[in-house]
Design goal:
Layout lengths: L1 H25 L7 E5 L4 E6 L8 E7 L12 E3 L14 E7 L4 E2 L5 E6 L1 E5 L11 E7 L5 E8 L32 E2 L10
Antiparallel strand pairs: 1-10, 2-4, 2-9, 3-8, 3-10, 5-7, 5-9, 6-11
Keywords: Signal
Organism: Funneliformis mosseae
Protein name: 3_t:CDS:1
Length: 197
């Protein structure tokens, strides 16, 4: 009987440790979230660095559409297409870190391979190779406006437990130690020009 109790207590402790660890991977933030709207049908929301940087950290969460928006308005939004996209999901976004000078984005700091309801990325210990202006761009393929909680910093981590996003397309998955100098750069044909009003 005592052995069963010890095994049960040990199992519960291990489960608690796993839960706490998974929460840290997803990310507890130290910067407050701002609630924004991302327009439907490939509409976008974005926020750009105010000066050249080699660092970015962000957390985004799709939230209930009734959550009040941050006032004054945070970031910039651009409307999508007038008609719904036939194959679009009804929930989920993509999140990309883009250069302001072109349609290139940083795959290792972006959630773009699937539509997601949350995304946590952090430059961490390996700075980006280009000291440039960057933007966090959220794109909503759904036929309805989506509200998203966003926190972003272009000079320090937004996370309670900082980490380094994986240096591969899709970024934050399994922790690995790789140099940002080998960072892949893709050309995004679905983006909108961030320099145009």
């Amino acid at each position: 009987m005592k052995i069963q109790n010890v095994i049960l207590i040990t199992s519960l402790l291990i489960l608690q440790i796993i839960c706490i660890t998974s929460q840290n991977i997803v990310g507890s933030v130290i910067f407050p979230y701002n609630t924004v709207e991302v327009p439907q049908n490939n509409g976008t929301w974005f926020l750009c660095s105010e000066e050249p940087t080699k660092y970015v950290s962000y957390s985004v969460r799709v939230v209930d559409g009734t959550l009040p928006l941050t006032e004054p308005e945070f970031g910039t939004k651009k409307e999508g297409y007038n008609a719904p996209l036939l194959t679009a999901p009804h929930e989920g976004i993509t999140a990309q870190i883009r250069y302001t000078s072109s349609y290139r984005f940083l795959p290792s700091l972006s959630c773009y391979m699937n539509f997601v309801t949350l995304c946590d990325q952090d430059t961490g210990n390996y700075l980006m190779k280009d000291n440039e202006y960057y933007c966090l761009v959220l794109m909503n393929p759904a036929p309805v406006v989506q509200r998203v909680n966003v926190t972003v910093s272009f000079n320090s981590s937004v996370f309670d437990s900082a980490f380094t996003s994986d240096n591969k397309p899709g970024g934050n998955s399994v922790s690995r130690t790789l140099s940002r100098d080998s960072l892949l750069e893709f050309s995004s044909k679905t983006g909108q020009d961030l320099n145009q009003p």
